[in-house]
Amino acid sequence: MVFSWEKVNPDGAVDPLPLPFSIIDEVIEDVLEAVGEQVDAIEKRKRCAEYEFSLQEAGPSSFVQVPGRIACAYVEPRGTARMAVGTSQGEALLVDTRKGEVVAHAHPFPESEPVTCVSLCSESAYQEIFAGPGIDAPTLPSPPLKLFAAGVNTPKILVYDIQKEAYGILLKPACAIQLPKPEETEETEVDRPVIEQLHTRGVYGGVHVVALLPDRTVRVFLCPLGEPDLEDEANVVLDTPIAEGDEDDEEAEHEAGGPEEEFAQAPQVNTAMFSLSLTQLAPMRHLPMPELDTITLMVFSPRPRDGAYGVGVSAGQVPTLCFSSSVESNAVLAHFIPPPTPLAAPAGLELDELLMKEIPKHGVLPDPEFTKKLQPRRRWSMPAKTSATAVSPNGGIFAIGGCQGSLALVNTATGPSLRTMLPGHYGAINALNFHRDRILVSVGADCYVHQYCMQTDTLLARHLSSPPPEPAVVLGATACQTMPLAVTLDSEGSLRLWDLKRGCKIARMSCEGPIDDPKQKADTEEDPEATVKPVIKLEQDETPKLLLSTATAFCAICMSMGANEEHVEVEGGAEDEGAEAPEADAEGAHSPAEAQDRSWLVFFDQVQVLKKLFPSLPKGDVAKSFEALSKEELAKLQPQGVPSTMEKATLLSKKKPPEDPAARARSPPSKPTKTRLMSRSRSKLDTSNIMIMKLTAENLRKFAAAQAAQQEAAGGAKKVASSFGSAGFARSATLNTADRQKAEEAILPHGVPKNWQVSVRKHLKKALTGKDTRQSRIQKRIDQLKKEVGGE
Fold first, then answer.
1. What is the tally of structural domains in the chain?
2. Domain of residue 287, residue span
């Protein structure tokens, strides 16, 4: 039955519903329309950048598993590829983040004493000595990189020279700094490390070593640089043969001697040059000083952009600044540490006596006669207690964050003096970090991440750290110095990668999973054909605890926290570790959790991460290419997320339906091309272009005709039709091509694929002829068995 439809004006149409039901219908329609609009608005909002709908995920590029707990870690503020790590098992490790491996290690203290403070210094320079008129001073090389380590009980700071040898990196004992013994008071009854925080800064003629002691005083030592190597003896093979027994003697000597004997022949520093008092760190005059665990020191030197010590006339006149603050006080102190005095001959000598004086050696410094006390040059009272501090890599800007969200900037090169107050957070500022001297990144307890421009003192961007409605509190942040990238860490252990130039979030970072670095290769000793990438599998409590940034990679320190929670310290400082040795149980064995302590250094190579996130990024210098792109160009390079259901439906509606078989049969045959030959070889199960057949009257008529033809074929008639409307006719000699096409068009439904027609036609032909069908083979087998048995 065919219905005829008419167009009716909806305004003039009569509502067939009675009066109360029509009102209810209108109300329901209004409600559904309003709900649909709200659903569309929610879906649109969830697909914005705030909800991280299309945010990609980046995996680690390399990792280092460290036995024991990591007690302290240090990276140089100017962003090099080196990192120093101190462990609870008494190891001081030097890690190359470019390779993602430990290149050197040492046991500074006896009996595996934990290393609580480490530091690196490569910014010092030798002083030039005037040898006389007409005598050119020798060209001095750069001093070797130095590694500083301090333990829990040994009152020393051990200094190593990091030297590159033919077979690798060597840690050579360079100097030992003797710490003063703390005075026995009621507060020092509890065992504490001999040093709370350790900071180093290279100067013109030595290294300033700043140590916070348990008696709340700060001692400043001047570490000598050592005599320069005027001849490069690295990679030189000795001509003298090694006598038999030399190696055994060296091993025996190494076993007999410990760290004390290694540093016995090294220079000793016994007296501190300066002593700093922190009594003014109290909020008010009559209030007590803050606790030792809450004090933070920042040691730096203001330098021009891309400058270095020892370059220029005024390079030796730059002082070292020491800013101290506490989370229990709103006071901030600024101390000035004078640079070393230039080497000069004593005054009042005659010419003959002056000529008899020996030229002092480079890199050798005498011990000072006494320790000078320094008073603070500046003291600021902030609006609230200080919760976070940071200094720019060039030392020109010092940032102070408060527990109530206030943020202040201090100019260190001009005074120092208070520069400005920036619009802060709605909660406490948990971390601050600088990208060069251009952008300041701040994270707070209000779950927001801020980016400030240091040239205009304005807020550039403000975003939530994680998707709403319950974002996590941000605990830490670190910024790269080579490209505008930063990583934040929240309270749930999640990492986010930020683009500081365009002010947006570009990726989630996971510390678990396969290594993405193509340089990482599988172990080929057992299986040369193995291509399986190494996989990082962390325990449930092994979450990221600290973020660090070097010139090549971001580093996340992952480890579990036991009952006695240990904090990882940056800048060489260390908090109270409990210092008590783990107690043994009744049988004298430690707990299994302690025996299995481990830590992870997970590295995210910045170049590899960008290549994975943006595969079509121009090759060459990835950092310059990334910085040159605009926000729109970067969005085009980034792979898009999964399309929504509405987008899929829109794409499906634009897709063309398959061609009508009747129209295809009427079209003249064409020569087979390479594409067609390839399509014929595809599997018969390829139904990617199959669409649902329309249930129309015409198709129903064709299905009925096909079923009638099938019934006639089953009854033994000559006219044959295929099942399921595949238009498979037996090629009868009585029918010509035109009649056959008309018959096929009569029973062929629209939308049935051609490969199904061919398949059904073949099976139908076998069924009619009785050749090689399953039923015929079974019947033949039954007849054969009857003959063998001889009965029915």
1. 2
2. 62-126+141-183+190-226+257-305+317-340+362-517+538-576+596-634
